[in-house]
Design a protein that fits this description.
about 300 residues, mainly alpha, two-stranded antiparallel ribbon, about 55% helix
């Protein structure tokens, strides 16, 4: 651990976080995806355009707000049920700030990886042809021998689609909804496993974790049914979110977020009385057989070996 004061650490970490977010913002404002062509008879990119079942605003609200509420409520409950004076609200707020800061760092990493791959690959979405409506009269879809031609130069004729929407039609792989929702769900699941202690129910925590996981899966499914992504896009985004959630929580979260039992005093062993301790059993042999050289036995002299042999 670093010996820097907490305030200096916070300033340095904030600057690093901002530096991480700046390229992401520049990519969104000025970035252009790689130009990718198509085949005229490619039915995989000819599906009809559909509006989002889960909009980007709803995705961000759920992905950022869900962990925000879960972490806050968990820490408040821990303070409310903790009878020790050392566990104050200030400690809970400090733990909450660290946990959510780790979450934000991981989310920024997920978005940076997702968008970098999107703009580098430039894969067309399943609704590309319906959204773009290229003018097929301006190019030949086949070669003179009948072989399909790969079209790189085309012009979209759909006046209802703006430039931003057309640019988005080139950003199919990987699915941002999948990577963000899976990361948010898994981070929350890991956090609940580490920090939430439920003594009155064995099923409450697993049910909460299952709820977040099912929500992420449903979000991934809608991206395929809405014709926004191919199945491989969703799988790629889910894998990316899973790997980064595990790495961020395992390598950074476990260093900064205390476990549920880390603040508990050690359990002292119970004192045991002498009477409760096991006693050594008394010998089963008669005393005279244990004593070979007794100085006086009923007024007689020393006990010799011959006497012992005759006695036996």
């Amino acid at each position: 651990m670093s010996n820097l004061p907490v305030s200096k650490q916070a300033v340095i970490d904030v600057l690093i976080f901002v530096a991480l977010c700046v390229p992401l913002l520049v990519l969104h404002l000025l970035g252009e995806p790689v130009t990718v062509g198509f085949f005229c008879d490619d039915v995989s990119i000819g599906l009809p355009y559909r509006p989002d079942t889960i909009s980007q605003a709803l995705l961000l609200l759920a992905s950022f707000g869900g962990p925000f509420l879960v972490i806050a409520v968990t820490e408040i409950i821990r303070v409310a049920v903790d009878s020790r004076q050392s566990h104050r609200m200030r400690t809970a707020l400090f733990t909450y700030a660290k946990a959510y800061a780790v979450f934000l760092f991981g989310m920024a990493t997920v978005c940076m990886f997702t968008d970098s791959i999107k703009y580098s690959v430039g894969r067309l979405r399943p609704h590309f042809l319906d959204l773009c409506k290229p003018d097929f009269t301006k190019f030949n879809c086949t070669f003179p021998n009948g072989a399909p031609r790969y079209i790189l130069e085309y012009e979209c004729t759909n006046t209802m689609a703006d430039g931003k929407l057309l640019t988005d039609s080139h950003l199919s792989f990987p699915s941002g909804h999948a990577s963000v929702s899976v990361y948010s769900a898994l981070f929350t699941i890991f956090y609940l496993q580490m920090r939430m202690e439920i003594k009155f129910s064995h099923l409450l925590r697993p049910v909460l974790q299952l709820t977040f996981m099912v929500s992420a899966v449903l979000c991934c499914v809608t991206r395929v049914t809405d014709h926004k992504h191919f199945t491989t896009d969703v799988i790629g985004g889910a894998v990316l979110g899973t790997v980064l959630a595990w790495l961020v929580f395992e390598k950074l979260g476990r260093r900064l977020i205390p476990t549920a039992c880390s603040n508990k005093p050690p359990r002292l062993p119970r004192a045991t009385s002498i009477e409760s301790e096991p006693q050594t059993p008394t010998p089963l042999l008669r005393p005279e057989r244990l004593i070979i050289n007794h100085p006086y036995r009923h007024g007689s002299g020393p006990y010799t070996k011959e006497d012992f042999a005759n006695k036996v």
